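#lab-general

N.A. 3:47 PM
ok so I finally got the sequence cleaned up, no stray characters, all 342 residues accounted for. can someone with queue access submit it? mine expired

B.Y. 3:52 PM
send it over

N.A. 3:53 PM
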Amino acid sequence: MLDEVDTHASKMNRGEVYKNLPLYIDELTNSRGKQLSDLVYQLTSGKQRGRMQSGSNQERARGDTWACCAVTNGNVSAVETISGYKNAPIAEAQRMLECKAGKTHFVSKEVTDDFSETITDNWGQAGSIYIQYVINNIEQVRKTLKTMQVRLDKKAGLKAENRFWSAGVACTLTGLLIAKHLGLIDYDLKKVEKWALKQLEINKNTVSDMTVSVQQIINDFITDHYNSMLWIKSTQRFSKEQDNGMDMLVIPDAIPRSQKLVARYEPDTKLIFIIPKYLKSWSVEQQINYGQLVTDLKEKMGATYKKTRLTKGTAMDMNQYCYIFKIDIDVPEGAEVGSGDS
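B.Y. 4:20 PM
back already:
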């Protein structure tokens, strides 16, 4: 069994060595979001990363691909940990099936101690019996697996994006079916299947909750750049009052507290002006599809792209191409609202 402190390369090497055998990794509680994201992607891709030979301009020989069921445990949700690293980790969530393990109250301390002591000397005896049956009946096993997967997909309502869940749960249930046929276990497989379907439903709901609207994405962008925005009322009405068509100087509600200006927001018109390069770099960092985000901004929020004076109403003269659209945002708490006087 591998541990969290083992290197990523050692984990992938173990997967290559084990091939079809299950890969167990203990205690991922302290893993960071990026580490878990990389682990999930590479384990489910079933292959080692390409590496160069030392002192030679040649690639190292990469072993054959693998197809195993990896099992990990931890005191926190891996999906939640990854979500702290990137926005809406839907791809990772689709590649793992998380199950919450509750506390057991029916096992005594004596039984636990006895189990911990004897397991170190118990290497199992079912493996050879099990695998010989699979090898000798490989076509029937494949047929049973296919039948199980089709049945499971129908019951759980699984689609193409749920292919990892479908394959993993189908393999597990088929394996249990074979083990019971051989007399190795006496589990109630109907109860196990019912539990598995419940876990699939929970994980489907988790992924569904990750789907965010374009407005929520923009809200997150604004939250992350609150102190890099110019909050100022529009100069349009003041120019009309002066009847000279000239811009007036307006006291901002709040000015950027950082060294960069990423956007302008006018509380009275509800218009926001966002500089594309900052929206793009943030989207890449959050692993959000920037092209799709821009499309949604135009189609769902009526955004336009044009050159504007971003610092209009102040003494600064900064012309910049921006995405401009309406959105209702609260003025930063504690900001001194400008009176509009010149």
